[in-house]
Specification:
- The protein is of the alpha/beta class and about 150 residues long.
- The protein is about 40% helix and about 20% strand.
- The protein has six helices and five strands, in the order αβααββββααα.
- The chain has a five-stranded mixed β-sheet with strand order 1-4-5-3-2.
- Strand 2 and strand 3 form a beta hairpin.
- The protein is globular and about 35 Å long.
- The termini are close together.
Length: about 150
């Protein structure tokens, strides 16, 4: 199922990103481009981050920025950005972040299965390591195809 959502157009490998804000913005680009999210979605993520801190850093090396459906989510969507050199998100226990998965959900229910698939992927240290170390997008897709 993740293959359906994380197509080559929605996966990026970038070595030029040096801060968390830029990482979030770049991870949003594919979803913004296709209209799955609006710029307001990013604004909401940054506003929430100011209030709560790095709430979207879920585990060591993994961030999943997201906002509420009514804050600019036009549809269900995922994008994935890998940061081979890692970027500090100011999450004491989980920095540096190597993988950023932007999630968009237009309601409270449609993304549940997608989250389940992502949780399975995120819980595999071996597969996450392969994603972190991928040099080309097809290597990431090979891992994702198993979920």
């Amino acid at each position: 199922m993740l293959n359906d959502w994380l197509t080559s157009e929605r996966i990026q490998i970038r070595t030029d990103i040096t801060d968390w804000r830029q990482a979030v913005e770049v991870s949003a680009e594919p979803l913004l481009k296709e209209g799955t999210i609006t710029p307001d979605y990013l604004t909401a993520i940054f506003a929430q981050r100011e209030k709560l801190g790095p709430y979207f850093v879920l585990a060591p090396g993994i961030a999943m920025p997201h906002a509420r459906p009514e804050e600019g989510a036009n549809g269900l969507g995922l994008s994935l950005l890998t940061l081979p050199q890692g970027v500090k998100f100011n999450s004491e226990d989980n920095d540096p972040v190597y993988t950023v998965v932007m999630l968009s959900a237009p309601d409270k229910h449609s993304h549940i299965e997608l989250i389940s698939e992502l949780a399975e992927l995120f819980s595999s240290d071996e597969d996450m390591q392969k994603i972190h170390q991928a040099k080309i997008i097809s290597e990431i897709q090979d891992v994702i195809s198993r979920y």
